[in-house]
Amino acid sequence: MALRSLILLCCFSVLIQFALASKVRHFHWEVGYVYWSPDCVENVMIGINGQFPGPTIRAKAGDIISVNLTNKLHTEGVVIHWHGIRQFGTPWADGTASISQCAINPEESFVYRFEVDKPGTYFYHGHYGMQRSAGLYGDLIVEVADGHKEPFHYDGELNMLLSDWWHQNIQDQTVGLSSNPMRWIGEPQSILIEGRGQYNCSLAAHFSNGSKFCDFSSTHHQCIPIILSVFPNKTYRLRITSTTALSALNLAIGNHKMVVVEADGNYLEPVAVDDLDIYSGESYSVLITTDQNPANYWVSVSVRGRLPKTPPGLTLLNYHPISPSKIPTIPPPISPLWNDYAHSKAFSNKILARQGSPKPPMNPDRQIILLNTQNKIDGYTKWSVNNISLALPPTPYLGSLKYRLTSAFDNKMRPDNFPEDYDVMKPPVNPNSTVSSSIYMLRFKSTVDVILQNANTLTENASEIHPWHLHGHDFWVLGYGEGRYNEKRDVNKFNLKNPPLRNTVVIFPYGWTAIRFVADNPGAWAFHCHIEPHLHMGMGAVMAEGIEYIGKVPKEALGCGVTKKLLMNPHQP
Amino acid sequence: MALRSLILLCCFSVLIQFALASKVRHFHWEVGYVYWSPDCVENVMIGINGQFPGPTIRAKAGDIISVNLTNKLHTEGVVIHWHGIRQFGTPWADGTASISQCAINPEESFVYRFEVDKPGTYFYHGHYGMQRSAGLYGDLIVEVADGHKEPFHYDGELNMLLSDWWHQNIQDQTVGLSSNPMRWIGEPQSILIEGRGQYNCSLAAHFSNGSKFCDFSSTHHQCIPIILSVFPNKTYRLRITSTTALSALNLAIGNHKMVVVEADGNYLEPVAVDDLDIYSGESYSVLITTDQNPANYWVSVSVRGRLPKTPPGLTLLNYHPISPSKIPTIPPPISPLWNDYAHSKAFSNKILARQGSPKPPMNPDRQIILLNTQNKIDGYTKWSVNNISLALPPTPYLGSLKYRLTSAFDNKMRPDNFPEDYDVMKPPVNPNSTVSSSIYMLRFKSTVDVILQNANTLTENASEIHPWHLHGHDFWVLGYGEGRYNEKRDVNKFNLKNPPLRNTVVIFPYGWTAIRFVADNPGAWAFHCHIEPHLHMGMGAVMAEGIEYIGKVPKEALGCGVTKKLLMNPHQP
Predict the structure, then answer these.
(1) Which residue among B113, B429, B448, B496 is buried most deeply as judged by most CB within 10 Å?
(2) Residue A319 class from Cβ within 10 Å (0-12 exposed, 13-18 middle, 19+ buried)?
(3) Is the pLDDT of residue B338 over 90?
């Protein structure tokens, strides 16, 4: 009797703690195709509950998010990845098809249930085929837990979810990329801010010859820009996320400096900038102070790193009580030259961890150097790391690792380095590469350094920007460098004092980027270039750790490939 | 020892019998998107092994077909239905998503293994979403078994696989049909013969003002018509199949009569016609005799039953040794007026079983009258039978019936009739209908009559053609009539003497069609309008029988919906 009381008491106190600590936030989502006019041109997109972009999730640190997702696409599977959420203890909720789960079949449902443990600015998006490019994305904002405070002050919040948009549908895009000869998707038709852009018309038509002003009357309400409405003499937190399929972007606000305070859910040493570079997969919070004359100011988002063929995305910062329909008398801010990489590097180097942030271990247990190359395999254009182009297997790694189904993927070890004589400044002498589903197995709790090494593409004098995103972890960005990484020369330049924690980091053309992380999250995690077509063409790897500590994988995540057959065996699992 | 020898002997004799009786024909197919120019305009289509249309399968009656199909679509499931093959004992190989199996996931494989028990002209096609409309189809021709003879003579064979083609991709088509307001797919851009048509150009440009001759040089080889090459004074069997998404077609060959001898894999009383109507889902064999002056003759395929906006599909019957590039001096044959239903009905009434064909039982055990209506459900346009619009469940019926998973679909009885006061000549007074996954359960081996009753659509003075296709069975076509079926008046007109066996039959505008079949094939079988968008909008039903005799369903067919969960229960199945 006493024991029973004790047990009840324990349960009760656990319940109370749970109630205090977190709230479960339930969502019911249906993912399906919708007609939408994101840039004033009607197209078919993937929406959530009939809307594009998907609904913004707001939660508090420690909350449990529970999204019951039903697939209403007609013949396609679907998954959603919660970008930046580390999924400690719930690796099956990471939403990566073929990695963390089987794609959800049409008319079926899957519950994504996970903790948002850390305040910050995140987003979510499709992670199957090129569904992100079809519009399957939205914001996920985690506020500090009750009783906690952000380490900076602001009076109001504004959101800018940035993306790029093509009029060609993703099926055609995908076929083109997978064809021989490859057909490239080209530059986007529009840059979208909060899912809204203007194709073949401009808010700033007054300032450029030949472009026409947008007509938002009648049916084009879906492309009316979301105005950033502010009161004078206040401080606003602008949460900026980029889920572009391709474009690196630069954001500037006329007459206003931005103080960068957060990146990818981690606090930064505040730094004031005139314009901000943001790569696909990144998020930032900046503070702006409305200390200018009450008026309207341009907010301009331009393409960087590729010869821009897409006009900037535009909206307005509108001071109360000025009418938002009043066009500023001066043109939008001029963005840095698309190939002014010095500007971009200077920005990246300004991003440093806020004092008191967690520091990296002093030394790694393992170093993996990943050469990024564009290749040819049987005539098909691919991207590879260390000469391996990732081909995802039909069986998700999480299930096949957990249940030791070694036949489910290529068990060969992936190389930790690339040949000494490879010249990163030249097109590959031998452009051939191999396709494989092999992975990196990391020792649990070990410290891993990854040097992402950029190289020349198949074209002479060309090297591209790649933003690399790691699932399941934040990593410290130890530094950026030019040319080929040289251990002796470069390791001493690593910033071990205040490197920022990120989940996405860029490698610049012909350069390298060094990151460090602790492999402390049992699961199988994608690590890949966040450019959607590059990932589709094999630019990624999977890293797995702590397999023996992976909890019971929900059966709903296992209904495909070899794990399906496993489930059909009455003695397993 | 003696026993062992006996067993060995038995096995050996079984093996010999098997070798004599049938051959297993193995195919390895990869289904994926391809760039193709079926009508001289490049588009993305679904191909098999990189080809459109899919490869023609040729087999002999009694052979086993084994198609190992791998899904190379990027995010879509896929299945293939073997149209006209009854699948006795292999209902899981019928290739209907949500009915006979789970769609095959990307990168996964499924083996379709089934007997082609009856000689005839068949075809295969996708049966998931609108994938048939994307080009997933091909011919399946079953010759008589060795030692057997066809009941008619011919010197050579020619094929005509007919289809219609839209430039809008199927994702957009599907979204449009599923939207409120519904967006209709419109008329096809081209009629394809053997997968080849000509958009915005014509082989017969000489005979019509304003149209231009096709340029087949350079890259347009994929739309060069397949010429029917013949020698003079011979008899040819022309095998014609129609897998159109929408169009009823009429085929005519200049100066040549056609003797119809086979329909849907069943022999007919030979009948000579000048032109032939063929509806989606039907197949015919006709004999033509090359008894005309050696020359080229037009082969023309026109749209019937809808105001044609699509030019006829054209090719040539080319007599040896005349050059196939010589255009006939007279224009292509003029097809009957699109709405000359008297002509169509006269043709249908000429289709009668060959003497000695199996005869129907004299009386049915059950009569089901199915009213075909166009409806509105919550503002969405749908098609219904007896006021039920079919919504396929995530769990295939075959598995849920076999394993008694009653929660997997709506268990309500479907009605066998419709209200007496319903006026089939007028738009519905109450256009509302209901969506359901309910089915018809048929008593095993019972004789079932179905009266397919047409009606006015939602539009005044409009009633459309619907070709109904039954899976798993042939049925006898007992008769066609005008207006509402009246048991007392009409039952006596049924043809019980020589009704043709078919698997597809048309209902004419405002008319009815009576069919009879024996429910002797354990399984769950689709019965539906073969117009792809009509099926997508709910115009179908599922009929199940002999559930207790269904063999062991391959686990590969069960990896979705409730059956997936069943498989995860170690005590089942």
Answers:
(1) B448
(2) buried
(3) yes
Q: Are B46 and B71 in contact (CB under 8 A)?
A: no
For residue range A185-243, list pLDDT tens digits in order.
999 999 999 999 999 888 888 887 778 888 777 667 899 999 999 999 999 999 999 99
Which residues, 6 or more positions from B422, have their beta carbon under 8 angstroms from its beta carbon?
Answer: B371, B428, B455
Question: Which residue in B77, B78, B29 sits closest to B54, CA to CA?
Answer: B29
Whether the CB-CB separation of A356 and A266 falls below 8 Å is answered with no
A36 contacts in B (CB within 8 Å)?
none
Contact A105 B174 (CB under 8 A): no
d(CA B302, CA B310): 8
How confident is the model over B37-83, as pLDDT tens digits?
999 999 999 999 999 999 999 999 999 999 999 999 999 999 999 99
Q: Could you give the angle at the alpha carbon of A468 between the alpha carbons of A466 and A473, nearest 5°?
A: 170
Mean pLDDT of chain A: 93
Query: Rounded distance, CA B172 to CA B197, Å?
Result: 22
Helices (H), B221-361: 341-350
Cα–Cα distance for residue pair B290/B150, rounded to 1 Å: 20
| CA–CA gap between residue B568 and residue A568 (Å, rounded) | 6
In whole angstroms, what is the distance from residue B42 CA to residue B37 CA? 4
The answer for residues whose C-beta is within 8 angstroms of residue A545's C-beta and 6 or more apart is: A441, A442, A443, A444, A446, A519, A520, A521, A522, A523, A525
Query: CB count, 10 Å around CB of B518?
Result: 21
Q: C-alpha angle A61/A67/A73, rounded to 5°?
A: 145
For residue B93, give the 3-state DSSP assignment: helix
B538 touches chain A (CB under 8 A): no
Length of chain A, please?
573
Q: Which of A148, A158, A149, A147 is nearest to A56 (CA)?
A: A158
Asked if the C-beta of B571 comes within 8 angstroms of chain A's C-beta atoms, the answer is yes
B573 compared with A85, residue with greater pLDDT: A85
- What span, in angstroms and rounded, lies between the C-alpha atoms of A189 and A198? 9
Q: Which residues of B touch A47 (CB under 8 A)?
A: none
Contact pairs from chain A to chain B, CB under 8 Å: 108
CB contact under 8 A, A169 and B172: yes
Structure tokens at B337: 């007026």
pLDDT greater than 50 at residue A16: no
**Sheet harboring A63-71: ordered strands across?**
A43-48, A24-36, A63-71, A109-116
pLDDT over threshold 70, residue B554:
yes
DSSP secondary structure string for all residues of B186-247: -S-SEEEETTB--SS-BTTGGGSTT--B---STTGGGGS---EEE-TT-EEEEEEEE--SS-
Q: What is the pLDDT of residue A555?
A: 86
- Residue B311 tokens, joined: 């030019």
CA distances from A92 to A54, A466, B133 (A): 22, 27, 36
Residue A448 scores a pLDDT above 90: yes
The DSSP element (H or E) to which A542 belongs, if any, is strand A540-545
CA dist., res. A402 & res. A412, Å (int): 18
Residue with tokens 């997109």: A45
Facing residue for B76 by CB, picked from A76, A172, A565: A76
HEC assignment per residue over B468-481: EEECCCCEEEEEEE
Cβ of B44 and A555 within 8 Å? no
Q: CB B169 to CB A174 under 8 A?
A: no
Q: Which residues pair with B389 in a beta bridge?
A: B435
Contact call for residues B198 and B222 (beta carbons, < 8 A)? no
Task: State whether residue A129 sits within 8 Å of chain B by CB.
Answer: yes
